Structures are given as C-alpha cells and as structure tokens.
Amino acid sequence: SAKAAGGNRIGAYTEADATRAGRRLKLEGALRGALERSELSLCYQPIYAASGRLRGFEALLRWNHPELGAISPAEFVPLAEQTGLIVPIGEWVIREACRIHREATAKGHADIVMAVNLSPVQLRVPSFVDGMLRLLEECGVPASGLELEITESIMLEAGERTIAALERLRQAGVRIALDDFGTGYASLTYLRELPIHTLKLDRSFIRPICHQHTERVIVESMIMLVHRLGLEVVAEGIEEEEQLALLREWGCDLLQGYLLGRPIEARGVGAHLPKLA
Ligand code: C2E
Ligand code: MG
Ligand code: MG
Ligand code: MG
C-alpha cells in the first residue's frame, strides 16, 4: 500500500493497517473473476407506493466469497470502482434487472420500475448511454421500466459531460433517482442541476422522525419541497410502523425499508408479485 511504501512513516504503520491492506488486496484479486465464478448475485428490495401498491424493486449486489463469506457492497463496490470492474459488473446488474422486469411483465406487472444503483465510473464511459439504450432494446424493456440511482458523488469529478449523459438518458425515458439524499454537501444545488425524477431521502433522516423534532421538520419540509419541484420522493430505511404512518401523513410518494420488505433473492421475486396484484 501507499502507506507501507512511504518508508519514513513505517513506524506508524500498525498491524491493523497491514490486516486491512491485506484484506483489500485479497478482495481486489478475488473480485476479478467473481462474476464468472457466479459468486455475485442480486437481491431485490420492494418499493411501494403510498397506496400499498408495489412500485418495483431496487437491485442490490451481493458477493459470496468462497472463504470469507458474504462481503458487504459497502466494502466491495468501492473496490470495483477503483479497479474499473464496476463497468462489467454494472452492466450485468442492469441485464439481470431487465430479466426480472420481463418476468414481471409476463405475469401482468408490466408497469413495475426496476431501480439499479449506478456508479459514477459507469457514467464516465463515453459509450455508456448508447450501450444502455441498446441493452434495453435487446432486453425488450421499456426505458420507463428502469430507474438509475445516482448519488451526489457523481457530481464531484464530473460536471457537464455527466449531466449531458443523464439528460440523454432522461430524454430516452429512463428514470433518474438521486439516492442517499441529504448525506452529502450542497444538496440543494444538485436538485437544481441534475435531471432527476425521484429523490430518495436517506435512512439517517428517516430513523429519528418519531423522536426528534428537527428530523421531523426536515423530512416533512423536504417532502413538500420535492413536490413543489415536481419530483417524487422515496423514504429509505423504514423500520417502524410509526415512521410509516408519519411518512404517509406527510404525503411521501414511495416507501422502502425492512418493515415493508427486506431484499429478497431473485427466485423469490416471482412469488412476491401475485400477492400484490
Ligand atoms: P443504497 O443504494 O442506499 O441501498 C440501500 C441499502 O440500505 C441497502 O444496503 C439495503 O439493504 C439497506 N436497507 C434497506 N432498507 C433498510 C432498512 O429498513 N434498514 C436498514 N438498516 N437498511 C436498509 P446494501 O444492500 O448493503 O447496499 C449498500 C450500498 O451498496 C447501496 O446503498 C449502494 O450504494 C451500494 N450498492 C449495492 N448494489 C449496488 C450496485 O449494483 N451497484 C452499485 N454501484 N452500488 C451498489
Ligand atoms: Mg440505492
Ligand atoms: Mg440509498
Ligand atoms: Mg445508501
């Protein structure tokens, strides 16, 4: 690692650092080929409209390492981004989400929306938008059946080219959501600059709404603000009935969280659908 290589700082290089760096290297190596070895899979977490109607699912990556077991996407997605592996992995994620959409359509749920998390690294590939639109056509999924979840980090290095790419996707009918809203900086600026349909209020705001006056006011006002801007809002991480009741009262459009449904494996999705029809 850079730290280990920094000769004069070797004294500050602790055993914990070495363990971390070792794990990182090991995971980085193992991530190459993880897709081919079928170690990656997707879980799907349902998202509901306030009416209780199923709106769709968010696809969430899972990695089952043969020795280390389940590795959190919070750990391996950054590695996949640093190595560029997120590009082929991300394409596979979109294909899989499209496959689920087709299956749902075959069962009569043609209007569900599959949400997929998008890394800034993917958007930086110059052919991304063309590839994406071709893929949708190939899979026979309407553009409106896909929602790309981006985070504010997309703006850090990007700027105009990224916004132009998102704009093209939006014009083609692909939906864009701003994920983890409220956790970054200058959030309101991005609301103005990004071509988005949906705003996802971060779990950290939802968690305290039953107990904390400030969060209550923030979330209720955010929902109003988002509506005034003509966007729709998703509340993430709903775990308690009381949170759900408040969010409904405040007119939150879409609801997601363990209370309503945990991420489920692909083969569970089909069984999930008829119940909700
Ligand atoms: P995210 O996109 O914000 O996804 C929501 C995360 O919150 C998921 O964690 C989900 O399992 C978790 N969650 C949902 N409801 C609840 C709840 O009620 N309580 C709690 N405590 N957690 C809840 P997960 O699956 O570990 O994913 C973590 C992050 O990894 C995602 O955050 C996303 O940023 C990233 N990620 C996952 N899949 C992909 C992918 O295919 N591509 C990219 N680029 N990133 C991904
Ligand atoms: Mg997300
Ligand atoms: Mg999120
Ligand atoms: Mg998150």
From TrEMBL:
Signal peptide: none annotated. It comes from the Bacteria. Residues 24-277 form the EAL domain. This is Bifunctional diguanylate cyclase/phosphodiesterase. It comes from Paenibacillus xanthanilyticus. The lineage of its organism: Bacteria, Bacillati, Bacillota, Bacilli, Bacillales. The chain holds residues 170 to 446 of 446 of the full protein.
